[in-house]
């Protein structure tokens, strides 16, 4: 069975086919960086992290792009409240984002564009929409004319005319008076006095929220991407508007597969700040729930359904994780006692393959895991395989801890080792890691992000500077990168590559 996924666009479970063989491009809507991440973010990013790990495990080369919305009303408001700049609010929360996502074992995206660093591509796509007659500007604001996109509503299944009828009495005409139709949405917002603003053909202002994703997805991944991800709360209007913008500008489908995760409830109630049941990832981890317990808890549920956080459910997940953790820990804490090869050898694929299927008994479990994951990411059924694999190892671990362990015959020991190797490999697909394990990934994450994102945004700033004929700034940026050992190469097509010296 090959991978099947529920596509919101068709409402069906479909076979997944990538545009290019063995390559998958993914765009995931990121956070607005005005505050700490909460359990809704944790759920969403854990689920998509598992999708990404699964595709990698199945042999795809995955490019995963996730944006930061770093200009927005909420950020501006927060900056005023805290009496710091918008950039400081963003920077602080971007750092917190990485800290929290690293803590719960999310692989860092390959690229993380920011709205304020993507203004060129944002302005370009708005101009294209204007040229195509799908956008209009009034007094410094630019709107998308929803009527110009015939398939508007195809993702959410909303019919525009019905919507208009239903909403007729509810829309505040005073506030919306500039728009031709109440459903038109802002592509560019005129600057209010005192607000951070940027240059544009329409005057000083800032981009609307939806347009940044259309611009960044195209900039980073091209006109059509394989998979677009987000929470189900983004289907309307955000994703509907992304489709309208991108497909009008490019004349092509924005994404072949649209996947959405369900929302988070807390003890049966929708989680929200106003209800006071709002929990940040940090607060949950500080309360003593381990990161892996949180992952296990999230993965026990179907990713598309609502997920209810209750104390009891978390406690049950903690018990479940304890079992898996003690099974996994044998390979790290007691490999000498078991005379198992050292952990480094797992990373040698040839040795690993030979050891793994010492016994055919496990190929069936392996297959069941793969089939479960292929079945629209059925993680709860995949976890049943994990628990089955872990059970004898857990019993062994208990014996070792109690001091009642006596050596086992060689054939049985080999079998236990095969079992452990498979458990190790499959838990890694779910991002579940033994608490005793060294975190190479974390180190790699840090290295990857600090360098790549900084370099890429510096390159964009430099291109902008060159366009604005600010050659002094452009040279400064090049020198600054050079001093860090990074050399820029300007290509004939106007793009810039970089290499480490
Ligand atoms: Zn988006």
Q: What does it look like?
A:
This protein has 501 residues and is an alpha/beta fold. The chain folds into 3 domains: 4-261, HUPs (Rossmann fold); 281-429, Isoleucyl-tRNA Synthetase, Domain 1 (Orthogonal Bundle); 440-500. The chain is built from 17 helices and 15 strands. The protein has helices spanning 39-57, 73-82, 86-103, 119-131, 160-167, 209-221, 235-250, 281-286, 291-299, 311-333, 335-338, 349-356, 361-374, 379-402, 410-429, 440-467, 471-483; strands at 4-7, 12-15, 23-28, 61-66, 135-138, 141-144, 185-190, 205-207, 225-231, 255-261, 264-266, 269-270, 307-309, 486-490, 496-500. The radius of gyration is 25 Å and the shape is globular. Zinc ion binds next to helix 7.
In terms of topology, how is this protein built?
Elements: E1 4-7, E2 12-15, E3 23-28, H1 39-57, E4 61-66, H2 73-82, H3 86-103, H4 119-131, E5 135-138, E6 141-144, H5 160-167, E7 185-190, E8 205-207, H6 209-221, E9 225-231, H7 235-250, E10 255-261, E11 264-266, E12 269-270, H8 281-286, H9 291-299, E13 307-309, H10 311-333, H11 335-338, H12 349-356, H13 361-374, H14 379-402, H15 410-429, H16 440-467, H17 471-483, E14 486-490, E15 496-500
Helix pairs in contact: 1-9, 2-3, 4-6, 4-7, 6-7, 9-10, 10-14, 10-15, 13-14, 14-15, 16-17
The protein binds zinc ion.
Zinc ion binds near residues 29, 213 and 238.
Shape: globular
Enumerate how many helices there are, as a single number: 17
Please describe the biggest sheet, giving its number of strands, its sense, and whether it closes into a barrel.
Answer: 4 strands, parallel
Mean pLDDT: 90
Rg calculated over all Cα atoms? 25 Å
Structural class: alpha/beta
Kindly estimate the percentage of residues that lie in beta strands according to DSSP: 5-15%
* Poorly predicted parts: none
């Amino acid at each position: 069975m090959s991978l099947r996924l529920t596509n919101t666009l068709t409402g069906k479970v479909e076979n997944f086919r990538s545009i290019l063989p063995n390559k998958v491009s993914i765009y995931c809507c990121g956070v607005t960086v005005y505050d700490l991440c909460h359990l809704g973010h944790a759920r969403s990013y854990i689920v998509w992290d598992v999708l990404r790990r699964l595709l990698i495990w199945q042999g795809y080369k995955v490019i995963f792009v996730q944006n930061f919305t770093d200009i927005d009303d909420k950020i501006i408001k927060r900056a005023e409240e805290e009496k710091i700049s918008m950039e400081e609010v963003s920077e602080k929360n971007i750092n917190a984002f990485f800290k929290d996502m690293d803590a719960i074992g999310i692989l860092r995206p390959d690229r993380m564009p920011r709205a304020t660093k993507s203004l060129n591509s944002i302005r370009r796509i708005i101009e294209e929409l204007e040229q195509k007659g799908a956008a209009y500007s009034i007094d410094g604001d630019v709107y998308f004319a929803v009527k110009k996109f015939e398939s508007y509503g195809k993702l959410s299944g909303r019919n525009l005319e019905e919507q208009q009828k239903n909403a007729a009495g509810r829309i505040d005409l005073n506030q919306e008076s500039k728009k031709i139709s109440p459903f038109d949405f802002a592509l560019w917002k005129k600057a209010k006095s005192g607000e951070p603003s940027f240059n544009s053909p329409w005057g000083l202002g800032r981009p609307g929220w939806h347009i940044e994703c259309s611009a960044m997805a195209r900039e980073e991944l091209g006109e059509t991407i394989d998979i677009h991800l987000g929470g189900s709360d983004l289907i309307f209007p955000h994703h509907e508007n992304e489709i309208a913008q991108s497909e009008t500008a490019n004349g092509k489908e924005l994404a072949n597969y649209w996947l959405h995760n369900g929302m988070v409830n807390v003890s049966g109630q929708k989680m929200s700040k106003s209800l006071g049941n709002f929990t940040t990832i940090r607060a949950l981890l500080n309360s003593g729930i381990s990161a892996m317990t949180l992952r296990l808890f999230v993965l026990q549920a179907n990713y598309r359904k609502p997920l209810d956080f209750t104390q009891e459910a978390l406690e049950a997940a903690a018990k479940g994780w304890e079992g898996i953790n003690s099974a996994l820990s044998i390979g790290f804490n007691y490999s000498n006692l078991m005379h198992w090869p050292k952990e480094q050898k797992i990373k040698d694929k040839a040795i690993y393959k030979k050891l793994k299927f010492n016994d055919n008994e496990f190929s069936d479990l392996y297959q069941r895991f793969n089939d479960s994951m292929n079945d629209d990411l059925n993680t709860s059924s995949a976890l049943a395989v994990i628990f089955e694999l872990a059970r004898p190892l857990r019993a062994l671990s208990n014996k070792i801890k109690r001091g009642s362990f006596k050596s086992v015959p060689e054939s049985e020991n080999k079998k236990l080792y095969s079992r452990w190797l498979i458990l190790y490999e499959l838990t890694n697909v779910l991002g579940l890691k033994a608490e005793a394990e060294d975190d190479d990934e974390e180190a790699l994450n840090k290295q990857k992000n600090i360098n790549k994102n900084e370099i890429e945004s510096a390159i964009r700033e430099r291109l902008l500077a060159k366009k604005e004929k600010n050659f002094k700034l452009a040279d400064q940026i090049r020198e600054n990168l050079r001093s860090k050992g990074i050399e820029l190469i300007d290509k004939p097509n106007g793009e810039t590559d970089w290499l480490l010296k």
